[in-house]
Amino acid sequence: MWSGRQARFRPLACGVEELRRRRREREAALRKARREQHLVSKRLLREDAEGPCAAELLREVEVQQFLRLAQSGTDEKEREKALVSLRRGLQHPETQQTFIRLEGSVRTLVGLLTSNRALLQLEAARCLHELSHSEQSAVAEACLPATSYLLTYLSGHSSDFIELCLYTLGNLIVESEAVRKQLLPQGIVPALAACIQSPYVAVLEALGYVLSQLLQAKEAPEKIIPSILDSTLPQHMLRLMQPGPKLNLGVAVEFAWCLHYITCRLTGQLGKCQRSFLGLPTQVNNAVLITHGALATLVLLLLDLAGTVQRVDDAGLELLACPVLRCLSNLLAEVPVESEGEEMQLRDERVMAALFILLQFFLQKQPSLLPEGLWLLNNLTANSPTFCTSLLSLDLLEPLLQLLPLSNVVCILVLTVLCNVAEKGPAYCQRLWPGPLLSCVLNTLTLSDTEVVGQSLELLQLLFLYQPEAIQDFLQQSGLQALEQHQEEAQLRDRIRALQQTAIHA
Question: Would you say residue 232 has pLDDT above 80?
């Protein structure tokens, strides 16, 4: 409702709803623009300590000879030695091309993979693993006849062999859509759901790698994510991310990224070369994850990470903090904090305190991760008076203002959070002003970035609307002069004029 005080400033021609609409549009554009580009790397397991010159370029006749010896050598030792030589040759790209051109070469390798000789099986799997690491998609597709067997061996007893099969599958998945089309009907999701119950950390990390490769596929939203959500994988992933003495950082990192890919998928736009920062999460996906306790688990992880960075100077913690912050941001972007079933846990002031501890950690150790934490802070405060109250009652305004000079991206996010607080009404604006906010806003008005200035103008509009005393302070500090330098900028002209008129007529 509009109060008498609010009605005095109608010459702004910009009410609270209009400001909200502008910010929603701007944030939607920002979410779309902030998808980060990255190349999905393959992973390579090599048991023996081979130097950089270990790869041997094999001629066609040599490849044929090693295959023949591996298949029908005089004894197992000779056959194994031939496979070792072949594997080292397959580390060379030209040897890989020679190998797949040979008729029956992959069939021979699959035959050795399915033999009853454990050592030959292992070396054949290592040969396939070298092929899976190739940068040529034709090489990966040549391995198609082996995929069903690699899946079968995930239910085996050797953790080392299972790990090798998983990384090979992960490498093949990311390279070829043909491989993914074959693996899905072959039952890769049920196989992974069974495998995730393994007690071996190395197996679980490898499984997380395979799952993340699947989730980054362009067809994931329609064909892969629904199958994963219908399986037991989400429950087990969240179980393995529970804070406590049994939590393994490597495993938790893998599955946190998997959750991120599920929550942020933009249908048809997140291919293997992109990792979304804050996509448009689907309500169905998020509802399923929240039902399984995703929000509760992620909040507990956030609290645990904040406690850990205060005790341990471990640079590896940001590897987990990044996907955890992104997952929480994505879930909260669609599920209002105040209406969520987990609200009592989210309303805990410890969440706000923990987030600021991580922001200070990022400031000192990983400044590039500050936008991750600030985006979560934005989503927490956007629709929640409770979190806005926590930010103010815990005296976190000054630490937040200290981040303004770091970069334009950080500055915009900090200003957006401040707008979230100011938008809640007069009681909140009274806590923002007077104080250090004025000088900080005046500094941002001197910047050349129009988006930073535009966000600063929006903050001033809200303050003038709810806290008229701020206008006099603004005028005394030469605020109008700060606005004049931007009057010729088309994007800002009308808003600056409206703000100037409000200040002059106050």
Answer: yes
